[in-house]
Design brief:
Layout lengths: L11 H13 L2 E6 L5 H6 L3 H9 L5 E6 L16 E4 L11 H16 L2 E5 L1 H9 L3 E4 L5 E9 L7 H4 L7 E8 L1 E5 L5 E5 L7 E4 L3 E4 L7 H13 L5 H13 L4 H13 L15
Parallel strand pairs: 1-2, 1-3, 3-4, 4-11
Antiparallel strand pairs: 5-8, 6-7, 6-9, 9-10, 10-11
Helix pairs in contact: 4-5, 7-8
Keywords: Cytoplasm, Hydrolase
Protein name: Glutamine amidotransferase domain-containing protein
Pathway: Secondary metabolite biosynthesis
């Protein structure tokens, strides 16, 4: 909807209504790259519900595309969306399954159109791959639990962080991955890193944001995931116990991470303001 041409001829009340209507019609889509676990279906309904609870807001329209099963948005409809979110996945972002290659092409198209894309875990990695970066298996193995990530000092301007009252020196986030970004795409900026992973967050302008951790996860989801990884022999008993013990001792900065993601997707730099009450270490 064109807003500015209405200024000269539209009554004030009608103009406000049109602006509110345009804002309320924002549309997003989740590109889901993992199937719902039995636990998530029982407790949360679906991963889609988990993502909407973390990143969605009232008045927005959200669609779901199960890209893992070959379900993709129509290329002719991409312009109708304000942004896309790519979920995590048990698959390798560097794999050559047809759906992964098709996802890479979609992400390249969205980048060229400068439509916002937020990548989470696998989504972070496949976004990097699609845009020319390098991803692969971490040489230090699994990273599961709550990890402190450090924000890069002297960041270049990016709207989704610029309105924080103070950019925190670090954030705690839930992690569950054994692959990582090895090299960011040309033109990308590393926003955060950790002692375990060199690229925890990266961005390209104000339309691409990758996050290695899971700002959408609750601790109960990770507890269940640890049990499933243990049951299928992906991790050892001792490591699972260490992870669970760590979950009892630390708390992720979910609220602030969610607000950063919402701010990125909405493009509303006034949305986060002073609501991230973090202890800077």
């Amino acid at each position: 909807m064109e807003i500015l041409p209405l200024l000269a001829s539209t009554p004030h009340s009608t103009l406000i209504y049109n602006i509110m209507k345009a804002t309320a019609e924002k549309r997003y889509a989740l590109l889901q790259a993992a199937r719902d676990s039995d636990y998530v279906k029982k407790v949360h309904g679906s991963y889609f519900n988990v993502f909407f609870a973390a990143f969605g807001e009232e008045g927005e329209k959200w669609d779901l595309f199960m890209v893992l099963d070959g379900e993709f948005p129509d290329m002719n409809d991409l312009h109708k969306y304000d942004g896309f979110v790519i979920s995590g996945s048990p698959c390798d972002a560097y794999g050559n399954d047809l759906w992964i290659l098709k996802l890479c092409f979609l992400l390249q198209t969205l980048d060229a159109m400068e439509i916002k894309v937020l990548g989470i875990c696998f989504g972070h990695q496949v976004l990097c791959r699609a845009l020319g970066g390098k991803v692969g298996r971490s040489c230090t193995g699994w990273d599961i639990g709550i990890r402190k990530i450090r924000i890069v000092k002297d960041l270049p301007p990016c709207s989704f962080l610029s309105n924080l009252s103070e950019i925190p020196a670090s954030l705690s986030i839930i992690e569950c991955h054994q692959d990582e970004v090895l090299e960011v795409p040309l033109g990308a900026e590393v926003i955060a890193f950790s002692d375990k992973t060199g690229v925890e967050m990266f961005n390209i302008g104000d339309h691409i944001l990758g996050i290695q951790g899971h700002p959408e996860y609750t601790r109960d989801i990770l507890y269940n995931l640890v049990d499933r990884l243990l049951n299928n022999n992906s991790i050892e008993v001792g490591y699972a116990e260490i992870v669970k013990f760590g979950l009892e001792k630390a708390e992720p900065d979910r609220k602030c991470l969610e607000r950063i993601c919402r701010n990125f997707l909405s493009g509303d730099t006034g949305r986060i303001e002073n609501r991230c009450n973090l202890v800077v270490t």
